[in-house]
Write a structure and sequence with these properties.
The chain is 35% helix and 19% strand. With 209 residues, the chain is an alpha/beta fold.
């Protein structure tokens, strides 16, 4: 597979502070339970990323919201660089992460969220392999968003005018990609865990079915 050290895999996550993370799950899990789930899902994805990096020569990065760099390092106990996502909406923060990675000589950059519990190294490999021939790769989520986005160069317009937090994120992004004439590859559709009805998709919480 055409994956080398110029590949960058970035996790977007949030420090698991009760009441400030996974707020849509608070009615089902409570503030502490929602934060605990965020913690578990992030830890599981960091583990999957580290496994991927033992198989493929890609660099890793974590972009966080809330907390501090010291708090993130203490929580995750990892050597993966942890950087603040910075200000702005999700599109602003994604563009910033991509732009900085490409400025550091990355040739293919993939960003994932902490909401999809079924992400694995083979899926990361599929994304990077697709970027060897395509300009954009997206992992569609069942809720109308996406759990993964990958690019081969900065594309700030891809993240502009997107209705973040709605069920139209994927459709709006694909429309932007068409406008930009980007060759695009779609991965399999997976489930994010954002709402109480999504809890059935994971097996390490008290409400799993």
């Amino acid at each position: 597979m055409n994956i080398d050290r110029r590949a960058r895999l970035i996790l977007f996550t949030r420090y698991p502070e009760p009441g400030r993370t996974k707020t849509r799950l608070i009615p089902a899990l409570g503030a502490e339970g929602a934060a605990a789930l965020q913690r578990r899902m992030s830890e599981a994805l960091v583990d999957q990323m580290e496994r991927f990096a033992t198989q493929y020569p890609a660099s890793l990065e974590i972009r966080y919201a809330g907390g501090s760099r010291q708090g993130m390092a203490a929580w995750l106990a990892t050597d993966i660089p942890c950087l603040d996502q910075g200000e702005g909406n999700l599109g602003d923060r994604l563009h910033r992460a991509f732009a900085q990675a490409f400025a550091q000589d990355a040739q293919a950059v993939v960003a994932i969220g902490a909401d999809c519990p079924t992400l694995t190294p083979p899926l990361f490999a599929q994304a990077f392999t697709a970027l060897a021939t395509q300009e954009l790769v997206l992992g569609p989520a069942r809720d109308g968003g996406y759990y993964l986005v990958g690019l081969t160069r900065p594309r700030p317009a891809l993240f502009a005018e997107i209705p973040w937090g709605s069920g139209e994120v994927l459709a709006a992004t694909l429309k932007q990609a068409q406008t930009l004439n980007l060759s695009t590859h779609l991965l399999e559709t997976l489930a994010d865990v954002d709402r109480p009805e999504d809890l059935r998709h994971i097996d390490y919480h008290p409400y799993s079915q």
